[in-house]
Amino acid sequence: MSVVVGEPAPDFRCVLPGGGTLGREDLAGGPAVLLFYLEAATPDCRQQLVTFAAEAETLGALGARVVAISADPPERLAEWAARLGEPFPLLSDASGEAARAYGVWDAEQRRARRAAFVLDAAGTVRLANPRYSVGRTDDVLEVFEVLEQLASA
Q1: pLDDT digits (tens, 9 = 90+) for 52-61
Q2: What distances in angstroms separate CA 2 from CA 10, 35, 45, 79, 81, one per listed residue?
Q3: Of the four, 52, 54, 76, 126, which is 20 to 30 A from 44 by CA?
Q4: Is the confidence at residue 43, as pLDDT, over 80?
Q5: pLDDT above 80: residue 1
Q6: Can you give the three-state secondary structure of the chain, one letter per residue?
Q7: Using CA atoms, how far apart are residues 132 and 143, in angstroms rounded to an integer?
Q8: How much is the pLDDT for 153?
Q9: Which domains does the chain have, with CATH numbers?
Q10: Model-level pTM?
């Protein structure tokens, strides 16, 4: 499945490290950034999340919520969230259902590929980058450009 800009975002429900779940409908009412990453505590994935954590004030001013999703078990995510300072929810998609719904599941590696999606307040996809790269500044800037467009609309 591929996600199409302008179409409703796929539903998902993932496990929070401390218990409970969070899904697409919980993000309604404001823009949301979904960051899929490979694996907790790896250098590139850390950089991917730290980049957004460092912009928490800007994201807040734009009214955006960020969630980061990986196939790691909740216990591992709880440890990593504590080390990162819990900048935003780290969600466990151990079954890969969310990654499959967004077209970023790597069946061979049994984990999500790195990707970024921006949803508007109604849950419509406004940015789909299924090949997000930590090393491409344009990929990060594109997320913020879309969020700024949503804030000024």
Answers
A1: 888 888 999 9
A2: 10, 16, 22, 32, 29
A3: 126
A4: no
A5: no
A6: CCCCCCCECCCCEEECCCCCEEEHHHHCCCCEEEEECCCCCCHHHHHHHHHHHCCHHHHHHCCCEEEEEECCCHHHHHHHHHHHCCCCCEEECCCCHHHHHCCCEECCCCEECCEEEEECCCCEEEEEECCCCCCCHHHHHHHHHHHHHHHHC
A7: 10
A8: 82
A9: 13-152 (3.40.30.10)
A10: 0.94
Six-digit token string for 94: 């151990």
65-70 and 90-92 beta bridge pairing: parallel
CB 3 within 8 A of CB 17: no
Pairing of strands 65-70, 32-36: parallel
Q: What is the pLDDT of residues 72-104, one digit of tens each?
A: 999 989 888 888 787 889 999 999 999 999 999
Q: What is the mean pLDDT of residues 7-34?
A: 95
The span from the CA of 108 to the CA of 77, in Å, is: 22
